[in-house]
Amino acid sequence: MDDLIDAYLNHLAVEKGSSRNTLDAYSRDLHVYAHFMCNVCGHGDIEGITPDDVLAYLKSLKGKGLRENSVNRAMAAIRGFYKFHLRERSVQKNPVALIELSKAWMRLPDTLTIQEIERLIAEPGQETPVGLRDTAMLELLYATGIRVTELISLSVNSINWQVGYLIVMGKGGKERIVPIGEAAYKSLSRYMEQVRPLYLRERMTDVLFLNRFGSGLTRQGFWKIVKKYADRANLFKKVHPHTFRHSFATHLLEGGADLRSIQIMLGHADVSTTQIYTHVSRQRLKEIHKRFHPRG
Q: How far apart are the C-alpha atoms of 248 and 178, rounded to whole Å?
């Protein structure tokens, strides 16, 4: 199966423009799958794999304590692998075609309430250059729902100041446009006028968000920034950069936005990925009912 895995990963890299993180994750998942099928199920030939073998593999993942999103990602890798090779006629059958993950395995994304988001965004303050920069980043993350990799990759040309929208280069090199909103627009303007020239000094770079040495931020660096302010805000939840993305989508849906519009803004290729947020809203409704109904 190694040659088939390499061919699929090459397809993702060359034709789909998948990120290095995606390629690494899919490579790990597919090689673990191949190892299980060979050494546990005894299949040296890919054509011998059955749906029961795949179910046994998924059960083994759960037995190892993998979180639901990791199991779902492994299944996404396997589904994509078979879909590609069926199209290429490298395999004759797809043992995962009729397998659906149990809904109990679906982990609802962590979200913050609007009030919690406001407390978190207020934490950096407006008194220092770092505070102004961090406020702008948090405002933009919540206003647009972009991924942290997309945030730290933004250039000064990513913003259309006249119209007030962001041009984002997402997964697979796909470009999308997302409105910024008034609060993020004002915060970004203050950062651009008061902080970026200070951090830029005499360097030449078009990276939008800079550290005090004039360089771009890393994913790990931004994660630490978010964690610092979440701790200060006394949010007794696990907060990470993606929490802003989940909150963005959930609050839009609860405010009446249609799923298709949210899908476009998030940059999801398939609306089924976006539908997780409908589960979040239903869960929220159950909580509200239980809390406020006299016989809840």
A: 12
pLDDT digits (tens, 9 = 90+) for 61-114: 878 877 777 788 888 889 899 999 999 998 888 888 877 654 444 555 678 999
Sequence-ordered list of residues with C-beta below 8 angstroms from that of 238, at least 6 positions apart, any chain: 110
CATH label, 114-291, candidates 3.40.50.1400, 2.40.50.140, 1.10.443.10, 3.50.50.60: 1.10.443.10
At 254-269, the pLDDT tens digits run 888 888 888 889 988 7
Which residues are marked as active site? Answer: 147, 171, 242, 245, 268, 277
CB 214 within 8 A of CB 226: no
Q: Which tokens hold the place of 271?
A: 């609306």
Contact in structure between 105 and 210 (CB atoms under 8 Å): no
pTM for the structure as a whole? 0.65
Residue 186's pLDDT band (boundaries 50, 70, 90)?
Answer: very high
2-105: CATH topology is: DNA polymerase; domain 1 (1.10.150)
Q: CA 21, 217, 172: angle at the middle one, nearest 5? A: 35
Task: Classify residue 100 as left (phi > 0), alpha (psi -120 to 50) or beta.
Answer: beta
DSSP state letters, 57-123: HHHHHHHTT--HHHHHHHHHHHHHHHHHHHHTTS-S--TTTT----GGGPPPPP---HHHHHHHHHT
Neighbours of 80 (CB within 10 A): 17
Q: Domain extents for the chain?
A: 2-105, 114-291
